[in-house]
Amino acid sequence: MAYDLTGITLAVLGGDERELIFIPELVKLGAKVNVVGFDKKVLLKEAIHYNSVEEAVEEVDAAVMPMPGTDEEGRIRAIYSTESLTFTKEAAEKLAGKHLFIGVAKSYIKKLCAFYNISLIEVAKLDEFAILNSIPTAEGAIQIAMQETPHTIHNSCCFILGYGRVGTTLTRMLHSIGAKTFVVSKDDAELARAFEQGSSVVKLEDLPQKINQAHIIFNTIPARVLDSAVLEAVNRDSLIIDLVSTPAGTNFELAEKLGIKAILAPGLPGKVAPKTAGEILAQILPKLIYQYVV
User: Fold this and answer.
1) What separation in angstroms does the CA of 164 have from each of 128, 167, 177, 185?
2) Quick check: 41 pLDDT over 60?
3) Does any domain span residue 61?
4) Kind and range of the H or E element at 91?
5) Is 235 found in the same domain as 188?
6) How far apart are CA 254 and CA 39, in angstroms?
7) Do residue 186 and residue 211 come from a single domain?
8) How far apart are CA 163 and CA 184, in angstroms?
9) Helix (H) / strand (E) containing 243
10) How many alpha carbons lie under 13 Å from residue 198 in its C-beta half-sphere?
11) Do 154 and 72 share a domain, yes or no?
12) What is the pLDDT averaged over residues 236-262?
């Protein structure tokens, strides 16, 4: 379905290759798009370029921030900008009463949105987006595993911590290429589903007693689950790939002291498959904008 965005003015604040895919789609659907943070390249001729976030959000109906959002000081990811971009109180005030679409919002953004009555839509938390986005995430995780281990994925013992949207897709892909998959969760329903789909299952509380079997450990749980009790039991030649944004689920300092290779790998869709990740956003964002703004 094509969503008519005629008459809507949007501000896209920073971003990466994904924005280069979905901004033209928004324009094609009739939206006027203000952008800031794209000065390193001559691109996005369909958009109206501004030099500051405050200018870009002047009299718009909604703003769109990158999937990684901001840091805790409000700095926006903008790989094509020569200047640092920050979502300031002044920018938030200009957006008061409007809508802000973002991947994941840090507390800094949440507080500003609450204070200025900005409707905050965290796209990464929506099933429709997150399930599709789990595909490039899982492929990227497997790519890292192939590059960083001296053995095949086939016949390897792969522990997948968490069986949410990413964990489910990742387990299915690993299983399909011959890995021995072990799903770890504290949720009995998740473990039942993982067992039904052919994986061995481990209760999270039992992980210290089971983790020594693992050749590769993929973490998708946004909590410190790979702590000292678990890491002490991990084989020193195992590989840990943590897919959770900071703060991650792994005690990386301890892993290094123990001689365990541990890799922090959040935001894989934009790194390993930016075109696909942008196409997913081009599919999802117009619907959300039409739903919330039109």
Assistant:
1) 13, 5, 20, 9
2) no
3) yes
4) helix 89-94
5) yes
6) 41
7) yes
8) 7
9) none
10) 10
11) no
12) 94
The pLDDT confidence band at residue 42, using thresholds 50, 70 and 90, is low
* Domain extent for 97: 9-125
Is residue 281 situated within a structural domain?
no
Residues 6 or more apart whose CB falls under 8 angstroms from that of 126 comprise: 284, 288
Name the more confident of 254 and 246: 254
Q: What single DSSP character describes residue 70?
A: B
Q: Which of 48, 66, 57, 69 is nearest to 98 (CA)?
A: 57
Same domain for 60 and 137? no
| Residue 213 lies inside a defined structural domain of this protein | yes
Kindly report the number of other CB atoms within 10 A of residue 29's CB atom: 18
Nearest to 38 by CA among 55, 20, 25, 54: 20
Distances (CA, A) of 228 to 118, 286, 293: 41, 45, 47
Is 90 exceeded by the pLDDT of residue 45?
Answer: no
Structure tokens at 167: 């964990």
Residues 112 and 68 in one domain: yes
Q: What is the pLDDT of residues 195-222, one digit of tens each?
A: 999 999 999 999 999 999 999 999 999 9
Record the pTM: 0.90
Tokens 């920050």 correspond to: 86
| SS3 category, 207 | helix
Q: Are residues 175 and 151 in the same domain?
A: yes
Supply 205's token pair.
């509380």
